[in-house]
Amino acid sequence: MTPFNELTLAISAIVLAVTGIVGVILLSTSIFKINSSMKKTVDVIEKYQRPYIAINLKKTNLVIKNTGKSQATIDSIVINDTDEFEDMDGKVINPEQALHLKNDFTDQDELIIEINYHSENKAYKETVSLR
Fold it and tell me: Per the UniProt record, which residue ranges are transmembrane (predicted)?
């Protein structure tokens, strides 16, 4: 082979190697960007679709309402770190459904309610101070 042909083949091999390396780098960065974008999308969908439990006090009733978009199952309700509504464990609250707990809370100066609940995918905990 002539020196010109050898030089041409060497330059072609270098160009192909550099092109391959650049292609692999671009491919890996786009995969990482797609992966992070998918994680953000899943987080947004989960936040939109999750149950949100709102707790209010109306006269002597404690009103627990699911204002979210999916079903919630109550794991426990604790009032002032001591009292527990055990009959509510395992109770299912559908979206926009409210539960009324009849109890007289007028003798309590402080009213802190902790509710543990879960959806199909995740467990949540809310602590609400009503007084």
Answer: 6-32
66-120: pLDDT as tens digits: 998 899 999 888 888 776 777 778 889 999 999 888 876 667 778 888 999 998 8
Domain extent, residue 94, equals: 51-129
User: Are 53 and 65 a contacting pair, CB within 8 Å?
Assistant: yes
List the beta strands (DSSP E) in 32-97. 53-58, 61-66, 72-79, 83-84, 92-93
42 in the same domain as 11: yes
Number of domains the chain contains: 2
Residues 74 and 43 in one domain: no
